[in-house]
Amino acid sequence: MILHDADTDEVFIRRWFRHSPPTNKKHAAGIRSYIDRLESEFVAEAADDEFLKTEWGLKFTESPSSN
Prior knowledge:
Blueprint: E1 2-5, E2 10-13, H1 16-19, H2 25-37, H3 41-51, H4 55-62
Antiparallel strand pairs: 1-2
Helix pairs in contact: 2-3, 2-4
């Protein structure tokens, strides 16, 4: 349920975006910015995978400037 990288001390709570998805373009942009700054590759991949399953995560990733 919780991913933790001991080397970077970063965590990700699985299914977070199912219960708290981005609600608009600006919210999605902020989330993308945080994911991009994660040091842990496996935490970032898990967060990105779940982010892309949300409506706004997918819209923002496909076309960041037009949504």
